[in-house]
């Protein structure tokens, strides 16, 4: 066990209507979750994950906590990109003090508690953020409601386009994006615009900056 007094970030999520998925669909979404987790680990090797009972997943971030919103959005759109039957609820929490064990599901701390509790409050909403800083939480409460509405209305193609941009850190041109997805440049441009990419990217940058300030306070 590793105790830390520093702030960590925790993503806790579950699949929406997982009992209605066929065996094939369940295996498909499980593979997608594992792919996202591998990508998050590749971004920072200290990031760790768990999948519980197949339809619940968790990620703990110790170093690059400012990236937790990007990671959470990637989870959501990666799952939604599979088609209409697929969606997830995502709870993000940032807080200091935690006991990190080799098994993420056995780790303890304020961020784990906040993330788990907030997930249980979600009914019609699909994403929520809490922290041990009231000002940080309030700063993004309404913004994440708008984000949630935007993400909920995306088609699977729009999710696929947005996912590719998110995982490339926005470094792709539209033509490069089209080539990567093997679609027409006009289709890529139209889908990217409809996904709300520019505003989502601005929100992620704003979130990153505020979390860095929180870390350094």
- Give helix % range: 40-55%
Q: What is CATH's topology name?
A: Alpha-Beta Plaits
Structural class: alpha+beta
Please report the number of helical segments: 8
Number of domains: 1
Given the C-alpha coordinates, what overall shape results? globular
Mean pLDDT over the residues: 94
Q: Architecture, CATH level 2?
A: 2-Layer Sandwich
Q: Output the radius of gyration.
A: 17 Å
Proportion of residues in β-strands: 15-25%
Gap between N and C termini: 27 Å
Q: What would you say this structure looks like, in words?
A:
InterPro entries: WH-like_DNA-bd_sf (IPR036388). The chain has 217 residues and is of the alpha+beta class. The protein has one domain (2-154): Alpha-Beta Plaits (2-Layer Sandwich), CATH 3.30.70.1230. It is built from eight helices and six strands. Strands 1, 2, 3, 4, 5 and 6 form a six-stranded mixed beta sheet that branches. Helix 2 (68-80) packs antiparallel against helix 5. The relative contact order is 0.15. The model has no long low-confidence stretch (mean pLDDT 94).
In short:
This protein is of the alpha+beta class and 217 residues long. It is built from 8 helices and 6 strands, in the order βαββαββαβααααα.
Annotation keywords:
217 residues, alpha+beta, 8 helices, 21% strand
